[in-house]
Amino acid sequence: MSAIVLTTLNARYAHSALALRYLYANLKELQTESRIMEFVIDANPQSVAEELLTCKPRIIGLSVYIWNALQIAELIHILKKVSPQTLIILGGPEAAYRPHRVDLSGADCVVSGEGEAVFYTLCRDVLAGRSIPKHISAPVCDLASIALPYEAYSNDDIAHRYIYVEASRGCPFLCEFCLSSIDEKLRRFDLPRLLEALERLWMRGARDFKFIDRTFNINIRFAAAILDFFLAKEPPYFLHFEVIPDHFPDAIKERLEHFEQGSLQLEIGIQTLDAEVAARINRPLNVAKIEENLRFLRERTCAHLHLDLIVGLPGESIEGFAANLDRLHRMGGGSEIQIGILKKLSGTTMARHDEVFDMRYSDLPPYDLLCNDRIDFARMQEMKRFARFWDLLYNSGNFTSTLPLLWEGEKVFDPFDRLCRWIYTQTRSTHKIALERLAELLGLYLIDVTGAERSRVVEALDRDLGGIKGRARTRLLEERSLTPQKNVPHGKHKRQEKHR
Fold first, then answer.
1. Same domain flag for 28 and 170
2. Could you point out which of 17, 342, 409, 411 has its C-alpha 20 to 30 Å from the C-alpha of 231?
3. What are phi and psi of 395, to 5 degrees?
């Protein structure tokens, strides 16, 4: 039995909730009465409630964010129906800003802000029989005073999950779509203390580290020390850093050149290449420097690059986004490009553009853009499908030989947009499309719609997938046009990836 249970619903099993481990690490003498229990968002809420209540907890702490908010709301409803005496404390970005956009009113207490110190105090008061407030605003933590969370990763976590690491909090930039911009002051953890924690994780067998800092490379000394820590280790290992695109001083470049293939992934937030749009949302933009740094990373390092673009920024049309994608594709040289739909996150200042640009968002998480004055609803729906098919066909790395047959030039948006529309007429879906079926659709589109040479298409698909077999090969070799057909998944195929 545990008096305190810390829990959340993660997007995937391989994810781990760093916030829960911070809370656990800072529970002091109450830690022996506490435990962490993690689930995934597609779990049955009643089953989750059942499992949580087997511990007979006095307190359940729930971490809420946009991707699990609706499920957490349902979970709270169930818990309060069957165990009203169990006290529920909420935290996390979706709980922090009021009024709540999802009904979380069943919770007994909501914590806004950094909860490490406050949560301990609340739990102590509850267990002592004292009352607690319905809402509490937590002050910014002194990072030197809080316990680090990394000992709270279990051996099972280390074996099967990503280990999330935080070297700093906050962000010096003011990008309006991002929650990190709310905390303008960048604060760093004590470097020797952090490196000692990383060493202990390493000695326990941790090899997959995902740093959640928004601007990892902004401080040269700090970033260099962390890179040196890992460069001194024996591969294989996998590191993920979020970096700003226009700040790669020589000291950082020199270190990045030494990482081996498959050991380093850099997430680089571009978002837009339009200077006017970037200025409108307070996004720093130095395109010349970005292009220079991407060239260096492509040509001189083995880092896997993950570049981000956003659809629907205020004042940016589809034609503007298309120009961004075409240009970034050239600059990225085959790097992964994550296409995201603009979301209006609670706590950000994006609402100030709503009237001027007629920005209309869903009222349900993840609060994605439905339409604006430049992009109507139907076109936005097409762009959401575009983003999904881009992931399946381009970012998956499964079709590196075949996709170039689609554009064979500098423009990628228009030909890929036409392909997406055509695939959707065949599938009426963007999910549960087996790899074999996806390859068949791509091949048939190239042959029947664009007029590509049949043998060239089949050879390219064979190179990509190690040989197209069975029904898909038969259809690709048939000398006839394709008629629309309902998509039927043909078994499960393991996604092929260049990097972990």
1. no
2. 17
3. -70, -25
DSSP state, residue 240: E
Using a 10 angstrom Cβ sphere, with 0-12 exposed, 13-18 middle and 19 or more buried, the burial of residue 80 is middle
- Quick check: 102 pLDDT over 80? yes
Q: What is the pLDDT of residues 38-83, one digit of tens each?
A: 999 999 999 999 999 999 999 999 999 999 999 999 999 999 999 9
Strand order in the sheet with 264-271: 163-165, 208-211, 238-243, 264-271, 304-311, 336-341
CB 406 within 8 A of CB 450: yes
Q: What's the domain count of the chain?
A: 3
181: pLDDT confidence band, cut at 50, 70 and 90?
A: low
CB-CB neighbours of 201 under 10 Å:
18
* Closest-CA residue to 272 (of 324, 329, 314): 324
Order of strands across the sheet that contains 59-63: 34-40, 4-10, 59-63, 87-91, 109-112, 135-137
> Domain check: are 104 and 183 in the same one?
no
193 and 114 inside one domain: no
Q: Specify the pTM.
A: 0.90
Mean pLDDT of the chain: 92
Contact assessment for residue 64 and residue 32, using Cβ atoms and an 8 Å cutoff:
no
Q: What is the dihedral of CA 269, 257, 495, 413, to 10 degrees?
A: 40
Helix, strand, coil distribution of the chain in percent, nearest 5: 45, 15, 40
